[in-house]
Amino acid sequence: MAYLDHAATTPMLPEALDAYGATATECGNASSLHGPGRCARRRVEEARERVAAALGARPSEVIFTSGGTESDNLAVKGIFWARRATDPRRARVVASPVEHHAVLDVVDWLQAHEAAEVTWLPVDGTGRVDPAALAHTCEQDGERIALVTSMWANNEVGTLQPVADLAATASRYEVPMHTDAIQAVGQVPVDFAAAGVAALSVSGHKLGGPIGVGALLLGRDVACTPLLHGGGQERDVRSGTLDVPGVSAFAVAVEMAVKRQQEHAARLAELRDDLVARVRAAVPDAVYNGDPSRRLPGNAHFSFPGCEGDALLLLLDTEGIACSTGSACSAGVAQPSHVLLAMGADEAVARSSLRFTLGHTSTAKDVDALLAVLPAAVERARRAGIR
Amino acid sequence: MSGGVDSAVAAARAVEAGYDVTGVHLALSRNPQTYRSGARGCCTREDARDAGRAADVIGIPFYVWDFAERFHADVVEDFVTEYAAGRTPNPCLRCNEKIKFAAVLDRAVALGFDAVVTGHHARLGADGLLRRSVDAAKDQSYVLAVLTRDQLDRSMFPLGGSTKDQVRAEAAARGLAVADKPDSHDICFVADGDTRGFLARHLGEEPGEIIDAGTGEVLGTHAGAYAYTVGQRRGLKLERPAADGRPRYVLSITPVDNTVTVGPAEALAVTHVGGVRAVWTGSAVPDAPMECEVQLRAHGATVPAVVTVTGAELTAELRRPARGVAPGQAVVAYQPDPGGDVVLGSATISVTG
């Protein structure tokens, strides 16, 4: 089998699994006051310090969560509510249209249920947000903006956003900015303080940690209304008993991913460039989507004209190649990519795309396996045509 | 795989017969929540999950294919248009003809598959003849009779030799959680089972007259002729009883002047049935009138008849009168056979007399 879907989830690093195993059998609630409780608390705080150190944050800025979706929800809803509570005029959310659904749907929800006003920032044909557009919006509407949210790197087409530029613009107008860096950590350098953002989402299982754990890095002076109320853990922003083995393994994975980032990215980029060159040679009319250089090193995203993405996925799956069409609805139906649509593609192109993503277990053999079957699959999917 | 017990067992049997099987669930609603909800449908998230779980247990790949646009155009809109034209369509038959054994089959063949396997209760053996299921109560050959030779040659119905009870028992023995799932009965895209309400929403109110066939007298009004079916007795809401006190039935629907004509039961009796879009798969197309039996609605009884096929048209002269024969339904010709009655052919009923 060739697993080319590391952006969906990537295998746990052995070091992270060891950390999980070492703590999973210990009994102790990090909120308890006795010895076992203190032991659990120590594990959690050590994990917090490791995550903070790896990502350029202070330990107190690390809020552990159940993963990327929760981090995104907490940041966007929480900062929106807190900012509007101090000044009712601040009811506008400024967002990129290529966000993951964990941000996109939160913005839609705020619009539908909290009377939020929304400004969608334009993106170019590679999916990149124009910082000048944000400057223009802030100039016009600065004091009415609750927050800006733009991802660090796009999960579908891999395009990197000018996060530091956007954050600098937002902070000139004293507007907090959130960034979803879930795909970025471990692939490109990510430094919370240097980026100048107010909040940053990170997820464990995208970088070699366990599924079900992540963090929101939240600036110490950034007000954020909680989604979950209860025991007051995590600065009162995120109640809930801390998952000691989860955060321990997550911290190890973040640390490893950041430490190895440069070497990892160079290796993935070389493999990816080989994959891209060979796909283009085998299927000359394949369209390579996203920014050709400012992109995630492990991401290759193509449209195959005349094919349906889900037909290609089925044919490749049959041959043992695991890849992705982007998003599917809850019933399992592949949807046209909202990212490609925002980039100006028509619906047929948005339905004809496939994403191949590489990770720490990828080798040249995976690329060979893909290329051995892709041309025939494309030809067959073309015969099946568009529904 | 609809998420029901039949398609799950059909898939399992196809695997056991040595085929390389892939499970496909059809997403037929443009908005999954607008179609039938609960455990009886073919278009809900829950059904997609049930189908996927069955595929897990059987050990086959599973995908959801989106045919919502095609289904809407070919089945739902056809359903509404047919009612508006005063006919009584069978949407399951249309779905088989246009979606399951056409759009889905074509896509599957293009992707490298050889055939479509479904959980319909009908037999299709090595002789290529479509026969009734051994379970007469569950037989679905009527809604498959519309399939052409080409379609049948790429179809497999592994359940035709079993009763529904046997299928359920087998599902339980195989560990399929859908073993006890209730059968679906209603039209999948009419969420609440209220066909008349569904049509009213799509076609709007169109009041017209209800006329007595014998006297020509106006007996009452209706909110839309499309809401009536030939042979219908209930729901006429006529204020005055017939002179003889006997119940009255819908005899015909005339969209042109938007009238519904009613009369006594015996006026429903027809002996001549004419159909269009004829398909003949059970033998060579007969070049002379042929003695056989015909079925004139889903789950209806058969009537001995003499059938003539001329190009795309089919006529049946009934040996004894039949009642409640509605244009838009199918006339299906069967050849009685100890090995299961054989489907000879079918047509869409256009005229009766």
CATH architecture of the largest domain in chain A: 3-Layer(aba) Sandwich
**Count of spatially separate domains of chain A:** 2
Shape of chain A: globular
Q: Helix count of chain B?
A: 8
The secondary-structure class of chain B comes to alpha+beta
Distance between the termini of chain B: 41 Å
Shape of chain B: globular
SS-derived structural category of chain A: alpha/beta
Bin the helical content of chain B: 25-40%
Give a quick account of the main beta sheet of chain A: strands, pairing sense, barrel closure.
Answer: 7 strands, mixed
What proportion of the residues of chain B form beta strands (DSSP E)? Answer: 25-35%
Mean pLDDT across all residues of chain B, rounded?
91
Number of helices of chain A: 13
Secondary-structure element series of chain A: EHHEHEHEHEHEHEEHHEEHEHHEH
* CATH fold descriptor of the largest domain in chain A: Aspartate Aminotransferase, domain 2
Give the mean pLDDT of chain A.
96
Structure notes:
The complex is a heterodimer of chains A (387) and B (353). With 387 residues, chain A is α/β, with parallel strands linked by helices. Chain A has 2 domains: 2-9 and 261-384, Aspartate Aminotransferase, domain 1; 14-259, 3-Layer(aba) Sandwich (Aspartate Aminotransferase, domain 2). Chain A has helices spanning 14-24, 35-55, 68-86, 101-113, 131-141, 163-172, 192-195, 244-259, 261-282, 309-318, 338-342, 347-351, 364-384, and strands at 2-3, 62-65, 92-95, 117-120, 145-149, 177-180, 199-203, 214-218, 287-288, 299-303, 321-322, 353-357. In chain A, strands 2-8-7-6-5-3-4 form a 7-stranded mixed sheet, with helices on both faces. In chain A, helix 4 links the parallel strand 3 and strand 4. Chain A starts with a strand and ends with a helix. The model of chain A has no long low-confidence stretch (mean pLDDT 96). Chain B has 353 residues and is an alpha+beta fold. Chain B has 3 domains: 5-119 and 158-180, Rossmann fold (3-Layer(aba) Sandwich), CATH 3.40.50; 206-267, Adenine nucleotide alpha hydrolases-like domains (SH3 type barrels); 269-352, Elongation Factor Tu (Ef-tu), domain 3, CATH 2.40.30. Chain B has 8 helices and 16 strands. Chain B is globular, with a radius of gyration of 21 Å. Chain A binds chain B through residues 310-311, 314-315, 317-318, 328-334, 380-381, 383-385, 387, and chain B through 22, 25, 27, 32, 44-45, 48, 52, 61, 63-67, 69-70, 103, 107, 110-112.
